[in-house]
TrEMBL record:
Broad class of where this protein is predominantly found: membrane
A Gene Ontology BP annotation from the UniProt entry: transmembrane transport
An annotated GO cellular component: cell outer membrane
Organism the protein comes from: Cupriavidus oxalaticus
Keyword Signal belongs to the record: yes
PANTHER family tied to this protein: OUTER MEMBRANE PROTEIN W, PTHR36920
Pfam families, sorted: OmpW
Keywords: Signal
Protein name in UniProt: OmpW family protein
Stretch forming the signal peptide: 1-22
Entry's localization field: Cell outer membrane
Residues passing through the membrane, by range: none
Amino acid sequence: MKRFFRTLLSLVCAAVVSNAHAQTAPSAPTSPWSLALGAVHMNFNTKADLYAGGPVPGAGVNASDDTVLGLEIAYSLNPNWTARLDIGTPVKTDLSGTGNLGTLGRLGGVKAGPAILTLSYSPGMWGPIRPFFGGGMSYLKVFSTSEGALQNLKVDNNFGGAFIVGADWPLADGYSISFTLQKVYLKTTASGTMGGVPVTANVRLDPLVSFLAVRKQF
């Protein structure tokens, strides 16, 4: 991942230098399609209600953050409105106990792939950048789980909502630097056993997703 960040930084610097030396020329017609490739950081804001035959007061769950490779496929419906599909390589997060479960340490792990579909609005260029904002839906696809203090861990797939705000910095030859923040609302149910006792948790993951990328308009 460190090598990927160095490569992304090199691409950004090269694009900036290329833009600084580019000569003004008539704009060629472009496709409504664009692709953005970059780094996605998932910062989870986890809350959970646990049940083991009944509510477990003072117990919570924390999900560790992760950074992965992300891809956005965007389609401009018109100069102001754009549909965006954001996907990425699978996110790996460790679930650990907090509060009364803090002494248990790692409860288990989840490998999942969130997808985010949004519709965004841009008011046009603001100086050198093109801001946008909007909302849509998200989907959490769980690929696998691993055990810790919880055995037989299962985590459900689920849909949620999403809000997006970001900006593109246009460069030369259809390239731009893109940065977005997405607040995603994801709720799921996790279940397993602990010492033979069935345990269920209603978990809110609610990650803040940041995406730094190089975009290409086709």
